[in-house]
Structures are given as C-alpha cells and as structure tokens.
Write a structure and sequence with these properties.
Length: 73
Amino acid sequence: MRKFGSLAVGMVLFIALILMASFPAGAANDSLPPRPTLTPTPDVENRAAIRLLAGVQYENAWAVVEWQGGDGA
C-alpha cells in the first residue's frame, strides 16, 4: 500500500510539472495591449478627474484607481 501511495504522489507531481511547462507564467496576459507610460503633469489648480468608460458586459465589474501624490508615492 505504501508503494502505491508514493507512486500516486509521483504521478501527480509529474502531471503538475507537465502542466506547468505547458502554460508558462504570463501566458494569459499575452493578448493584452501594452500598458501606457504616463508622465505626471504639474497640477496648478490641484484638482483631478477620473472618467471610466465601459460597455454593458462590465456592468457588475470592479475598477481600481491608484493615486500618486506630489511626493511620487
């Protein structure tokens, strides 16, 4: 029984290794467009606006906004 258990664990690890080699890290993001590089501009009036446009297919989706302060953090 013990030999069968170690053989089963070995087979599971072998299959996991094959699957990991078949799907390299980051493969899911290959179809995404490149991320734009934004250049911060001085905000003399100290105001901001965020506009999010999305289609109906994103009706129940979430959006995340990241804010960068004047100190760059």
